[in-house]
């Protein structure tokens, strides 16, 4: 019996080539530098929004790890930059130009809440960064995951809101275009009945 042949995938967005999202990705600039630290378990997830996020920005990088490599520890402590962690810690300040003065580096953690907290736990340097949070975040469009915490957003949604808050003229919808297509494609694949029964 012949084994199933894996479907070819786009090397950039990592989607099956028949469902490649790259035509919807239009990278845009930002004065804010973004670092997305992704838990390794999340990198294998089909709905990987961190990859779409970093493809959609000229000034963003994706780091897949649990413990930060030494070179990234130096990046986080560069005295020429103001570095903030976008995470709803109890001491987090509302994100705005006062809590995030330029030149700014913004760090986001990508994973489930449990995995994100593990990233914080094993990296004391992340714990030491001043934390900021989104003030009155919108309802998530991530209709395929049930968040365990109120106001939770996917990584790409959180970044879009943060940059729209910090930088006048930033095109939030331009960044979210492939994300919307990804969600709609997954709902179409599972069928509306299944989606209604499990996610509505």
Short recap of the structure:
It holds the Pfam family DTW. The protein is an alpha/beta fold and 200 residues long.
SSE layout:
Blueprint: E1 33-38, H1 40-43, H2 49-55, E2 60-64, H3 70-76, E3 82-86, E4 93-94, E5 104-110, H4 113-122, H5 124-128, E6 131-133, H6 155-166, H7 172-190, H8 192-199
Domain DTW: 6-191
Keywords: S-adenosyl-L-methionine, Transferase, tRNA processing
EC number: 2.5.1.25
Could you explain how this protein is built, in words?
The protein has a six-stranded parallel beta sheet. It has one domain (30-199). Helix 6 packs antiparallel against helix 7. The radius of gyration is 17 Å and the shape is globular. It is built from eight helices and six strands. 36% of the residues lie in helices and 14% in strands. The mean pLDDT is 88. With 200 residues, it is α/β, with parallel strands linked by helices. It has helices at residues 40-43, 49-55, 70-76, 113-122, 124-128, 155-166, 172-190, 192-199, and strands at residues 33-38, 60-64, 82-86, 93-94, 104-110, 131-133.
């Amino acid at each position: 019996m012949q084994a199933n042949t894996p479907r070819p995938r786009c090397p950039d967005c990592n989607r099956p080539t028949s469902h490649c999202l790259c035509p919807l990705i239009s990278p845009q600039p930002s004065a804010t530098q973004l670092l997305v630290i992704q838990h390794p378990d999340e990198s294998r997830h089909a709905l990987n929004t961190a990859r779409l996020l970093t493809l959609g920005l000229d000034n963003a990088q994706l780091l897949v790890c649990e413990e930060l490599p030494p070179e990234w520890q130096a990046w986080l402590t560069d005295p020429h930059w103001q570095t903030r962690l976008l995470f709803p810690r109890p001491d987090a300040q509302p994100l705005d130009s006062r809590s995030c003065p330029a030149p700014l580096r913004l760090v986001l953690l990508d994973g489930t809440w449990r995995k994100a907290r593990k990233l914080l736990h094993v990296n004391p340097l992340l714990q030491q960064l001043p934390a900021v949070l989104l003030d009155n975040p919108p309802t998530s469009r991530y209709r395929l995951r049930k968040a365990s915490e109120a106001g939770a957003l996917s990584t790409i949604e959180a970044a879009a809101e943060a940059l729209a808050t910090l930088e006048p003229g930033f095109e939030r919808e331009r960044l979210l275009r492939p994300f919307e297509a990804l969600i709609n494609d997954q709902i179409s694949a599972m069928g509306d009945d299944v989606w209604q029964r499990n996610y509505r």
